[in-house]
Amino acid sequence: MKKKFMTAVLSTLLLIGSMAGCGKADLNDSTDQSSVAGEMSDHQEETDAPEEQSEEDNSSLGGMEGTVQQPDHAESIVYMTTDISPEGLMAVYESLGWTHGEHVAVKLSTGEPPASNYLSPDLIRDVVQEVDGTIVECNTAYGGSRAETAMHYQVAEDHGFTDIADVQILDEDGSMGLPVSGGTHLTENLVGAHFGDYDSYLVLSHFKGHAMAGFGGAIKNISIGLGSSEGKCLIHTAGESSSSPWGGDQDSFLESMGEAGKSVVDALDGQIVYINVMNRLSVDCDCNGHPAEPDMHDIGILASTDPVALDQACIDLIYAQKDGDGASLVNRIESLNGLHTLEYAEQIGLGSRTYQLISVDE
Q1: SS3 for 169?
Q2: Which among 65, 128, 175, 358 is least buried, having the fewest CB atoms inside 10 angstroms?
Q3: Which residues constitute the domain of residue 298?
């Protein structure tokens, strides 16, 4: 039977503190519940009964101010396990109750050599094979070992992905355009030309920091991640250039990620689900072959049909840490205004920052 825990960050902290190897001795019953409750996320909601969504200030735990207009849609569900294992990953996937199509793409980062924190093939094998999926990725726009298709396939092989499934570089034959509706920067999102070969997408993201976006999770994986080399440039420059990813306004870049992500979801008509793995929580992305060592412990695996709710839940779990755990990651997110991605993505209807967090652990 699934256990529901939504009423305070204390519940989340106790759950995290119970995971093997956590070493958070301060997360025990001596914690002052009143002080913790005062720090709980505005985005989590009770699960016992649905309530009308508040239009009051929905500022995030990062101290950002301002009111975010809530879209009129049902509250999203985010499933979580602290068991970072093939079994835990399968448990959160099965909780989604997803009925996929015949041709499933599993979108992930193949990881930049020599030592990035990409998802281990051993961790994801069972889920990938459960959906009979093809692992897909696009070439980079910044150079490196994955900028050209032949080298990118070699990296996928070297990192063990071809041992567990077929792999396809979606933009090996160029780009295709997806219309962008409701945005202010992009009118078209350029994804890999083979994007349309698949009728369903399972998005597996390693949640972590990012040198340009502040953090990377589900939204980044379906925007920058599914963009062709040209498409990545358009997103980074908010539609100004398809040949260079450099330059441009920071907030416009973050907003363009939301717009590109929404075009993907619209094109798939909702036939897409998301899983974020919160381990090796470095300030650096898997596109960095020499990432900084994490300064916080692993947290768990989360899954949802809503990429905004999923990324928001991961952010809230990071901000709930105590005693400076993960301070460098928080600083990275805030220094780049990373939380604005979530604000804007919600405003344009990509998803909701209000969610119910449900544990699948016994």
Answers
A1: strand
A2: 65
A3: 3-359
